[in-house]
Write a structure and sequence with these properties.
- It is a single chain.
- The chain is an all-alpha fold.
- It has four domains: 2-10 and 27-207 and 564-648 and 702-941, no CATH class; 232-394, no CATH class; 419-479, no CATH class; 649-701, no CATH class.
- It is 62% helix and 3% strand.
- It has a two-stranded antiparallel sheet. Strands 3-4 form a two-stranded antiparallel sheet.
- Helix 9 (171-180) crosses helix 32.
- The radius of gyration is 34 Å and the shape is globular.
Amino acid sequence: MMSDVTGPAGEGGAGGGGGPVRASSLGDDAVGRPIFQRRYREVTVSAIVFGVIFGAIMNAAITYAGLKIGFTIVGSAIAAVLGFGVLRGLLRRGTILETNIGQTIASAVNTPNSGVIFTVPVLLLIGIKLDPGGLNFWLITLACVAGAILGCAFIVPLRKQMLDIDRLRFPSAVGVATILKSPGAGAKKSLVLIAGIAVSALIALPAQLPNMRFKANPDDRTSLVQRDRMTAAEANRLRELSQWQSQRRPSPERVAAGRRLHDHAGELSASDAYAFDAYLVYLQDLAGSEAGESLRLPPGSGEPTDLASFTAAFHAAGLGGVRVEALAGEPEEETAARYEALVEARLLDAWHLYRADRTLASSGSEGVELPAGLPTLELLSWSAFERSYWPRVPLVGYQDLGLRLPMPTPPAPAPTRPLGLMDEGQLEQQALLEGVPVESLRERASAEASGPEALAAHERAVAEAERARARYDRIVARNDRAGDGQGDYFVTDNMVDVGRVLGLPSEFQLVFAIAPFAIGAGFLSGKAGLMVLGGGILAYFVLNPVSYNMGWLPATVSAEDAPGFAFNSFNRPLGIGLLLGGALMGVVFSLPAIREALKSIARSGGGTIASAGGKGRDELGLKTLIIAAATALVLLFFAADFVGNMPINQACPVTEQQVEDRGERVTADYRGYALAFATPEARDVFTNEWSAEQRAEWLASTGARPGWLHGINSHLRAAIIAVVGALWIWFAGIIIAQCTGMTDWSPISGMALLTVVLVLLLAGTGAVTGAVLIGAALCVAITCAADMMADLKTGYLVGAQPRRQQVVEMIFTGIGPIITMFVILLIAQVNLNQGLPAMGPGTETSAPQAQALQAVITGVQGGDMPYTLYGFGALLGVLLGLGSFPGLGVLIGLSVYLPFFYIATYGIGCVANIVTVKTRGKAWSEAWGVPFAAGLIVGESILSLLINMIVLITG
């Protein structure tokens, strides 16, 4: 199953493809009897260890892939294949039932990732910080764990109804059962899976290595510039720094430049920071040598702090006009210069100045008189200066192959006019140019051909030369957009630009990502995935070129810039609209499933629960389920209550100062929201002195509107939201399980959107974190509910005991959200360290489903949005669902929204699946192609996560 992608193969579900195996083929009367358990091993330590480890690996890998392409894949089939390889191939002891438990635990650990990545990244997109040291992170993680447990507990009572009575098919679960019942091929398939992982890692390694950077070698400057791994300015800086390295201080020329910048400190720009810091390093080295001590400040009244602390102290002390009375250690012992302290816009340089001045003061020189209480700070040392300014270059990658577009040979210049065709004035000018007597030119002209034929031949030669020059200029303009005299790379570290190789017009974008995981995902999607490729072709080969050639784009947009401009201007909004419309149709088309689910509940009555709580061994007892559900509900309330009582503002409404989250904060309740204030006096002004209109106007400026429950106690409000959320989880879980059982498709993203909107209406539009918390819990719950029912279907077909599957799934499913949350943090931190946004546009992890959710939140809050494009896209999504299957709008929306290079590579996998099925048959494709494709996904994703961890650890 793929969450939110492959239409009939699933927008959500649980499993991985399979043949038409029916329960009756196994003998329904023999399925699941207790005697079966006495004959075969089932819940063992090896199965548990395998399931947890492989589930964690799959969770991390698929989380990374899902953030890039917008959908996830449940690893039940992969775990079943690998389980035989490990438990039976390596340990020589695995049974079918033991392997089934292993894949059940693995899918339970892996499955919650889709619920998390569809929702939680929206907080990063709107600027809310998540880190392990913050309470928000753990509360959201706790809510997701609670959701996983609730989803499992709520769906268990319907097992008999859905599987024994309704006989829902669960196509993917049937496929997993087929794998489990053919253990002879299990070990070989595991080798195929491992081969896919190895191939994927080898292909992805040169694409991922450039994410790791190291200090440039000064001797490699020329080569690095030629390979576009370093700019000319960086090469010059590297040369300069390498000359300073032995002296451990800047050159006299750089020191003089930095000193001149001091005299105009208030006019410094960001580009001056290099020279400025070089000068400060010189002053600090000089001051330290005069003092005869190290370059670290003596202990003071506080611990070393950061720029934020210094900024607050700088403003509080009013240091904008302070003067430096004497600056000792000027070069050549010159008299110290007076200059104004740095203005507020140059706080960073003020920070450096403060550190340098404190060192000079420690050497006995008179310096800036700073107020008491400012903490001592560590100096800017030479090693820190090196770390800041020494160029770092990426490791070797595909770009270093040097595959560039060809540059044409410059054409011959246009021929000059023959002497025989020149008149007297032209001959005189030519004689002056050549420095010869005009008579000699007349003699030569008389010997040359003249007349109409010679003139026509000359004009033809000139025209041909002009055409050759025009062709040359066009090719140069197309192949050398950088203007450096070299052809542009058509193979970069992570992309292959086939369109430019083929000479397609610049407004067409035919680029393939070097991404084995996308090929694997496309293969698993098969024919249904062509819808995604079709949407990408529609956007990038029809919509964008037509918009450019019809003049609908601004006149300043060139042909080569048209795809990027169109992508940001209307592809993304249109794609989000399609996602919303498609998700809505998913819910609408789920209404029959909802009706059947309600009928199932009515038919089962108390029977299933009663049998579950009786003496039978088939199901978990009612008491156990109630305890699990109650515990999860308490956790959900606890998380919702804490988040709901957190202030929604970061700046004080009265003073507009940033309100720091340190210990007890000054807060007040207003219209269902907790507000934070800088001081108690500011709170009193807001509460007692501001008019009702002023308070309402300020609240409206934040995008926060009162919710339906704003008038009741905050703890009661959190309890109501938790209960409503739990009931919605129960109801939505039934819907998703029914959809998965009947079609292997489920509208997970649509349910998430509806949940967030519902919570925002109840709690208020400012309660974004709380709404996302409940939405994430719901998404995790419904995916876990569908996964449990699919796993129980697999167990039903192979004769497993349901109770044991239910126990291990409820115990281990809570691990999944924790792993996913930390993977999201890892990716976000690496992006931030590279100067990129934490998530979303501008990064490789665009999180398209979360961006659709962001659009909904912005709309609910009344923000500025391209409503026309969203509305038109939503209408198209609805019409596509009506005309075909309900998930089509989501598929097309993803393809329009995502960059085409991922869609194109994904399409290769789809075509490969179709060709394989045609040439080798469907059974062979599923038996051998699916494990290899799964390996392609796992290999690149794990490699990327490992490299990201190395980058984060090494800085």
